[in-house]
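All the exercises in this workshop are built on plain-text protein records. An example says more than a description, so a record of this kind follows:
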Amino acid sequence: MSEQCDSYTLFTATGCHWCERARQMLTTLGVTYREADIYGDEAAVLASRGVVFAFPPVLVNGLRVIAYGRFSEGRLREELGR
């Protein structure tokens, strides 16, 4: 389970195989997240505030990018404190 104070959003693109892998990894790790379109308005707002969306998927917590592109399970565990 994710920590109570953390809110994670996974930005994904249609047909993105790395996005599917990221979903599976987050589920395996027990991370609660919501999903949003990397080409949608929410991503555009965050991009205007400096969040980079160059390589989907992108996992963010507020304005902090936790992981992007091909997620590393070891690094993700470290970032999430698991």
In short: The chain has one domain: 8-80.
